[in-house]
Amino acid sequence: MTSQDVTLHHAEWGSWKERLGTIPILFSAPHNAEQVRDGLPKAAEPGSLDLAIELARLFDASAIGTIPPLHSDPNWDADHPYVIRAKELLPHGFALDLHMMRDRGFPACIGTGTHPELVEGIWQSLESNLENMGLETSVGWPFGAGPQTVTSNLQSAGIKALQLELTPTCFDVKSEAYKKVREALEKFTRAVINDSLL
């Protein structure tokens, strides 16, 4: 992830990497680095930024994700600068916010946010592409993308956004689950573009 198309940034709240693409799609990884939520550390979600940038490069889309050190939580803190920057990278279009969850018996969970009407038809496409790869997918539970999340904050700005939670194995590039996720997200993104879901 040292290519010239990815830039490194630092601010008081933490550090991040970003990529500016040419199509109105953004892949986000706000928890790639260990966060601080309500004064307490919260585990990093390694691999989420790598996947975001890989997908962004494939489609010449934009990407953003945290790297150490991170002194806050973009998916929890109100009016977080991360969200502001994400809106600058993607004034309109579609955003997929990637997260890691513990294994609950299924590998994927889609959060439709507080404005699910914005993503009607899109979340169904994501679900079907994941399921078609044999990845059992829950919608809205246990993570629905509540009002404080990056997803819902982007939706409040009129951006079509979804949250996707995946188990740790899905971010392991050596695993079969990663290959399935990678293919499912590639097919899903192509569908978003080709079916004019933006």
Automatic annotation (TrEMBL):
Record protein name field: Unannotated protein
Organism: freshwater metagenome
